[in-house]
Design brief:
The structure is a homotetramer. Chain A is mostly beta strands. Chain A has one domain: Sandwich (Jelly Rolls). In chain A, the strands form 3 sheets. In chain A, strands 3, 5, 6, 8, 11, 14, 15 and 17 form an 8-stranded antiparallel sheet that branches. A 5-stranded antiparallel sheet of chain A has the order 4-7-16-9-10, with no helix packed on it. In chain A, strands 12-13 form a two-stranded antiparallel ribbon.
């Protein structure tokens, strides 16, 4: 019989100094006092930004955003939401980020148009390159690694947790940026956890490289980068976007 | 200059078959169609149980719970909450769990009594042994690896995201159970991610072993186990408890 | 200035009980006595099997092996090595494995024939499905995720650490099997670390699913499985194969 | 019956575009050509430095080493080995390192003196703070998280893979440095894998913070740092030390 560990306590002849009697241990030895987490104020309502969040969009204006080409962002704003405006192109945050907790709310059009990848398609590019898919895949059929909640063409969501088109949905994202060696090789890949509407859809998923429509994802070294929202030609809305740097 | 990877495209003499021209690639090759995530219905309100959740406490009764000794659970229920009832001991779920997403809400007494570990102390034992601390540490001073949001005596929360005593707080927990070899040795430790009031306080934290008041944590092999709530003598309340098996 | 943690020791007014003075701590509290690792005997010569290894091939016979179809393995044996014998098909271990440390030595023909994937091609399928590539890629050009040391079509080796064709090479592999949920979904992917000729070529690489020649890898639930060696039509030799279950 | 994933292929009515027929896929789409690992030369004999290694000690002199206080290192050298020389203090590499593969050989005195932590004690401090224990624990009894192969007071080795006192032993170490946030908090802990005499004794072990004799380990932010060898008063020998930066 194989045995890797055995309990010394079970041995017939036992050196008394081998038995761990914890009762006499001072519990203070395993207390840590000299590092204190900073106190922040969480929101009263889950989903609203806590005191240490950077609010990226509060319904008023696009002052924190530019186009992907660094010119003025021109998506429409209506009813406290920004709306992908066809032909205006992707927009991205002026500020760049690494590891972060991201909250973002999105809504696909209540008037359903198109199918598969043509229905309510947009996307959230973490660090401008790793796409968390936004899509109306409530009932529409598409490939599983391309539906809402997927890391596009890399990781299928654990469940389809979509609400109906026209309803506001939330993504709560914990994102750990990749680390690169001095030689430009990825040495710690990115990891992402996503809750969609409060339901876990990506569980510490390892990202395989930059999102690719064709062929395999590949890592290319980069530093901090923006959060980028995709103009895929469909009027998807976004609101209540905030981020906490980790 | 050292270089681990180089781009073949930069070489003067390039074998044409080495250059990857993705333009001709068929994008269907990286679509996955034949695995489909099951469709579930998320709650309309974040925090409420989605359709695939097991509701452990809905405010009505303790029918899903027993004492740690498997007799009838006798905590008081009031205003849709269960209250730690001094002397009634810990309670645990009748059902046992492994990997899970757990939602639980808790409230420490609005009348502040005691200090440090004596103020509003309770705890959530994942699999009956790994304690996510519950404590009124809004203003009270205690050791950092013993405050609310800590994995007790193992991991300090990233921030103090506490609400005031008397206010309802939430934990959203993603828990990956440890894996043991046939010999009883831990081979993949447990990992836990915790959002407190929507704020990340534990980020894929590796659990070091069973929670110990004295001495170091140590792993001992186990299978599925209950979620256990601690009676530490303070009237802490719990409500809206649900779990999704992963 | 943002600050998540601060040192209490730096504060002007310090509650004396907050400062951790470790000098009075009993060092015994952080000693662990009651779990003892089993004592094994390592080999005198690195590469030879330690006392707790299961020797899968010692140069004598194929008694531990069958074909993939569970009939008698018929590869040739010569000079203490087994040789891929064209047309005899893949062979696999009779015993099945999960997490393991694997040592295996291989040699591609000293007479170089063919190019790219046609030169000295074989492969080690961990659990019958995850291929660690064996190839003469000392000087031959092929795709990087298909050269020796790669997880085939998934992960490029960190460096090309190949010896010349005709020389014996070693793989030391640390393999953690994937874990699946009761529903057949992968919940912890497989990870693999590989040293080729003593040089790290795969560093805790996450495996993305079963090896696929066409299209993306996909996980399908399985239990313990064999180590399988590929007949790719080239007379690659293997010797000194042993495994330690973790 | 619960089911997270189902195979579309099993459904009675199947949309033909849902079934993945991989046979028509072009296998080139999953080839990666444009990133090439650099070619290095492994040693002919396992344990000797490959061509891209930095040799830290080749048996001749301590030119790559200083004392912990940055003055001249004064350990004795004899028979191509350096020997811990009582009273000369710890020595460390002049060069500093982050992620690395480390090879080091060590020998405790063949004349056994002392017991437990007093017998052939030294240690290898990764980045000057995370101790991989060196000890004659072939037969001597000590606490398990303090024996050879342990991460001192943090992680027990998987097996006791020690050779006899007086025999040369090897450590092959894969070390991933911790990453800290801009605020000084650890955001990705260090991980270490150790083969002792070719046998896995630490398997992707998470390091909990700097090594502490008393109390719990705690992380404090740092950058690249030296490899440091401990003078614990016993004449332990070291030889053939090399490192590869990852």
């Amino acid at each position: 019989m194989k045995k890797i560990f055995f309990l010394l306590g079970l041995l017939p002849a036992l050196n008394c100094f081998c038995q761990t009697d914890r009762s006499s241990f001072d519990p203070k030895v395993t207390e840590v006092w000299d590092l204190k987490p900073v106190k922040i104020s969480p929101a009263k309502k889950i989903g609203d930004p806590p005191s240490d969040a950077i609010v990226l969009f509060d319904g008023k204006d696009l002052s924190k955003w530019t186009t992907a080409q660094n010119s003025e962002a021109k998506w429409d704003i209506k009813d406290d939401a920004m709306i992908v405006t066809k032909g205006k192109g992707d927009i991205k945050t002026k500020q760049t980020f690494g590891d972060m907790q991201l909250h973002i709310e999105w809504r696909t059009p209540d008037e359903v148009v198109g199918e598969g990848q043509g229905r309510g398609n947009s996307g959230i590019f973490l660090q401008e390159r790793y796409e968390l898919q936004v899509l109306d895949s409530y009932e529409s059929v598409t490939y599983s690694n391309g539906q809402a909640g997927s890391i596009y063409k890399q990781s299928i969501p654990l469940v389809n947790a979509c609400l109906k088109p026209g309803e506001w949905q939330t993504y709560d994202v914990i994102y750990m940026a990749p680390r690169f060696s001095e030689n430009g090789r990825v040495i710690i890949p990115a990891y992402v956890t996503v809750l969609q509407n409060g339901v876990l859809v990506q569980n510490h998923t390892q990202i395989q490289g930059g999102t690719e429509f064709k062929g395999l994802p590949v890592y290319r070294a980069h530093g901090k980068a923006s959060i980028q929202l995709q103009d895929h030609g469909n009027p998807v809305s976004y609101r209540n976007i905030w981020v906490r740097e980790l």
